[in-house]
Design brief:
It is built from eleven helices and nine strands. The chain is α/β, with parallel strands linked by helices. It has a seven-stranded parallel beta sheet with strand order 7-6-5-4-3-8-9. A two-stranded antiparallel ribbon has the order 1-2. Bound molecules: cytidine-5'-triphosphate. Cytidine-5'-triphosphate binds next to helix 10.
């Protein structure tokens, strides 16, 4: 596999106390894992110097008005406007205000989840975070059903719902949204230009069908703050993935964080092939260098944190 040794820069040169990232890999499903509360608290404290997920999880109604101009985070020269509909769906207070959970699960979308039987275990957490509206019903045994928060990159509307180009796809999309009843729907609408129409369609359907989700639109500073935290810790990521964003934010409101479905490699430790996503036929495009992400580096960083007990990375089947 691509689990290569990760050599970290000198710890003492960092202004932030760093977890000591060791090079040895371990079986992340091994039962001897114990939670390192001290380290987890230290990480939370350090991340708070860069961002406060309770605040940065969403912009609020009080800070914007319809028509306000927003510069895209990655395409600074391009702008979009806060539409009437989007304004309508902005929260008045943070959807994570005063929320605290003992155990959270963050579910990545790797095919490593297939045949894992982790569904029940995932659902047993106090708070379950999922990424990019990944389907659950058909895969419930392996991925579970509960969702407390789910992300939706605008590109998902195109990739997973055929750009809503027929009544059938609209219905499927609405059905997926309706199944989220009560959970937070986190839409990074202002990252990169190109997704504004898709965001508008989604928002219109949410309003039209009075879908019971709590929408959140990340603050304009979140991404740079998350990247800043990891860069300061000598983790040279290009652009944080949704999964890493979720972990970084979850440290704010979760004690123990368990990650499932994080495996950005084409083969498992036994050499068997692993799908990029558990639910579709996308391939490992990130290896082409065209992807803005550095998933294997992120994975090695998360593995190191697992070994130190700051988080638990589940990569094998569940009991
Ligand atoms: N992931 C992983 N291994 C994979 C696929 C995904 O570790 N083979 C993790 C990544 O952290 C990723 C998250 O699961 O961000 C959600 O997966 P996905 O929806 O595929 O994210 P992408 O669209 O690939 O990337 P992003 O949304 O981060 O731009």
């Amino acid at each position: 596999t691509s689990l290569v040794t990760y050599r970290k820069s000198k710890v003492s040169s960092s202004p932030i106390p760093l977890p000591c990232i060791k090079s040895k890999t371990s079986n992340s499903s091994s039962p001897e894992w114990t939670f390192n509360r001290t380290l987890s608290n230290l990480i939370r404290k350090n991340i708070l110097r860069f961002l406060d997920a309770e605040r940065d999880i969403s912009i609020l109604k009080s800070t914007f008005k319809p028509g306000d101009v927003i510069h895209y985070i990655f395409d600074r020269q391009s702008t979009t406007n806060i539409s009437e509909n989007l304004y309508h769906l902005l929260p008045t207070v943070s959807p994570m205000k005063n929320q605290h959970y003992k155990q959270c699960a963050i579910v990545g979308n790797s095919g490593i989840l297939l045949n894992s039987s982790c569904g029940r275990e995932i659902d047993s957490h106090d708070f379950v975070i999922r990424c990019n509206l990944a389907p659950v019903e058909e895969y419930a045994t392996d991925v579970g059903l509960r969702t407390s928060l789910v992300t939706m990159n605008p590109s998902v509307v195109q990739r997973a719902f055929q750009d809503l180009n027929s009544e059938e796809w609209v219905q499927r999309f609405v059905h997926r949204l309706q199944s989220l009843s009560g959970s937070v729907l986190w839409i990074p609408a202002f990252m990169a230009k190109g997704g504004e129409e898709r965001v508008e369609w989604a928002i219109r359907l949410i309003l039209l069908h009075t879908v019971n989700v709590r929408t959140a639109f990340p603050s304009l500073r979140l991404l740079h703050a998350v990247r800043g935290y990891w860069l300061t810790n000598h983790v040279q990521i290009k652009r944080p993935t949704t999964g890493l964003l979720m972990y970084t934010m979850a440290t704010r409101f979760c004690d123990e964080i368990h990650l499932y479905g994080f495996w950005p490699f084409a083969h498992d430790p036994d050499g068997k092939s692993v799908k990029y996503h558990y639910y579709d036929t996308l391939t490992y495009h990130y290896t082409s260098g065209a992807s803005p992400h550095t998933m294997p580096l992120e994975f090695r960083t998360l593995s190191a944190l697992h070994r130190q007990g700051a988080l638990r990375l589940h990569t094998g089947p569940c009991q």
